[in-house]
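Researcher: Good morning. I'm working through a list of sequences from a screen, and I'd like to move beyond sequence-only analysis. For each chain I'm collecting a predicted structure so we can compare shapes side by side. This is the next one on the list. No need for commentary yet; just the structure.
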Amino acid sequence: MPAGPDALAERADVRADAIPPDVLASTEPLVLRGLVAHWPAVQAGQGGPLASIDHMRRHYRDATVGAWFGPPGIQGRFFYDDSLTGFNFSAQRVRLDGVLDALARHRDDARAPAIYVGSTTVDTCLPGFRDENDVPLPGLEPLASIWIGNRTRVAAHQDLPDNLACVVAGRRRFTLFPPDEVANLYVGPLDLTPAGQPISLVDVVKPDLARFPRFAEAMARARVAELQAGDAIFIPSMWWHHVEALDSVNVLLNYWWRRSPAHMDSPVHALQMAMASVRDLPPAQRQAWRHLFEHYVFDADDDTAAHIPPAARGSLAPLTPDAARQWRARLLRSLNR
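Model: Good morning. Structure tokens for this chain:
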């Protein structure tokens, strides 16, 4: 078995209405114990799964959501099929109250089907929920999403935004890996993914080290924490995270935001273009482009263009909204030739 992961760093002194800026700007993950324990939704959930469901029903207003349903045999692990060309679950648009009914109906089933509503805008499906249950994050303009399901597992993946995830009901176990562990996580297809982000093919709960031997190195650097209702976790941008929901009814509300100007494009597009135009070059040419990327992108600082007069720096100048639009226009013209 791989070496055991380390415990995540924790704090129990942070208030939801006064989260220190250094917490939300951290490049390391952090558990915030009891951050939202005062929420009415968390308090209601102390009465059991049905009480959590009833609290959500109070805010339901005829909303449809994207939901995943899997047979009992997948044991809550939403994943690919054996060929990696499809999935072991079905994705459907359904009424949220129907999902809540199914969770209530199967709450005591030893072999319940896997039921999962992921990353749904909370204000759309449960209007008014955040009037009582919210974390103020002034200046960040976050997107608030809700996640509802039973005992399910989401494979290790990365997200571009920073993420503050608050456990409303049930327990969740988070296993996190630093961004530089990508080579040891055996990431699956980039073009066909369960929810948009590429995922690790390794079952973190039962890793097959004969098939994925380097995963032992990733696990040696992993961080893990089990969160109770009322706890929260801050996950910095691009940290890999595997999430297990451990009870028959689990609810999580999270906040996403990016610490970059709105006019900046997604780095994913740059990666895709690099794969299309650089990856398959001859080794010597690829190495030459590595040096250019390092000079102009990864190691860029004030000295990179210091030898050029400011008025003549063009694309070497700091990126502005107008410059970003011009870059995109030139790129589109080039791609459409």
